[in-house]
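[job 4471] stage=fold_predict status=RUNNING
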Amino acid sequence: QVQLVESGGGLVQTGGSLRVSCAASGLTFSSYTMGWFRQAPGKERELAASKPTNDEAYYSDSLKGRATISRDYAKNTVHFELNNLKPEDTAVYYCYAKVWETLRGWKTIWGQGTQVTVSS
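[job 4471] inference complete, writing structure tokens
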């Protein structure tokens, strides 16, 4: 069974840092692009960062300079760190895994999401 399990959300103060993690199971981790979306209250889900196995990381323009995405291939885990937190970083952060399947096209798997709340 394919599964993405997030951890690390919670309440953090403005100016602080967060690190959320996503443990993947039931899939060939190195074959998937891993990444994070986030959805703030009343807003659409937006791509925060992604990291293919053999390519550079992508970051949303709004997060460049504050965000770092990394993959631990030994533990099939992807981490997302965000520094200098702002109240507008309050959102549910969703981990995802994406792979191109020849006959079916893009396949995307989602985690359940983890809430991050930045207090002002």
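[job 4471] summary: The longest strand covers residues 91-101.
[job 4471] exit 0
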